[in-house]
Amino acid sequence: MVLGRCARWLVGVMTVVCMVLVGPSAPSGALLGASLPVGSVKDVVPNRVMTWNLCNPCDTGNADRAAEIAAYAPQVIGMQEACVRDVESIREHLRNLHGLVYHVEYGSVLRKWGRCGGAPWSPGAFGQAILSAAPMTDAVSVEYPDGGSEDRGYMAVTTTVGGESVRVFNTHLAQRQQEEVRAEQVRVLAAAAARHERAVLIGDFNAVPDAPELTPVQQVAVEADARCRPASTGDCEPTTDWQLRFDYVFLRGVTALGHRVQPNEASDHHMVYADLRTEERPGA
């Protein structure tokens, strides 16, 4: 009996030792919630702007979403179909597992228990969010007069991209087969962007590049990917799993140095980002 108790005690001790050495189970072998050593802090790409529809509802872990973002480390990322709780979790994983520290602003337009959890009488907020490595100011959240089958809107912040101040807009337009609703939403968005010398418009526009409803925004800004501009005859790369181009980076007073569409397993939308050159204003 004594030997049996000793054996059980030894097994217990070894189990504790192994847990200390190996740590709890976490994505990518990292310790969930543990901070990285200072030397592991990663730099963002200071002129990179990204848009990503997170997909909701989807069975994707926030650690996986954070890993996708960290692989490209944008200065600014606009998210659509984003729950506030998920965004907070993604930020934690970006900081703790990847050494990337972001500020956040929200442009949520819905409270959805079915999408974002919470309690039926206190559901989670759902809509857009912007993460920026630099502080953000003058944040606004605007709900479109007509959202279509679901309330939709845009948000905007002023932040730093490539060392210069830029107004960043993030939107999610009305769902497919709602062209007339999207047309009015684009007019609202384009009018807001036209008030700024330097602006970046990102998001899920739910429309292909030659859709007539995109004309107002194409008149005040240009697509970062030259192959997707109205007069282009190039091959415009799809940004969704159903092989359609819905996600864009539009630029006003800013030049694209490069552009990329990155498929991933975490969402039914691809990540889309552009590396930008911001021109210093005369006399600035």
Proportion of helical residues: 10-25%
Number of helices: 6
Count of DSSP strands: 15
Low-confidence stretches: 1-41
Head-to-tail CA distance between termini: 84 Å
Beta strand %: 25-35%
Q: Report the structural category.
A: alpha+beta
Report the average pLDDT across residues: 87
Oligomer: single chain
* Shape annotation: globular
Question: Would you give an account of this structure?
Answer:
The protein is an alpha+beta fold and 284 residues long. 25% of the residues lie in helices and 33% in strands. It has 6 helices and 15 strands. It has helices at residues 2-22, 62-70, 84-98, 113-116, 179-193, 215-220; strands at 45-53, 74-83, 103-106, 110-111, 118-119, 122-123, 125-132, 137-143, 153-161, 164-172, 199-204, 222-223, 247-252, 254-262, 271-278. The strands form 3 sheets. Strands 1, 2, 3, 4, 7, 14 and 15 form a 7-stranded mixed β-sheet that branches. A 6-stranded mixed β-sheet has the order 8-9-10-11-13-12. Strands 5-6 form a two-stranded antiparallel sheet.
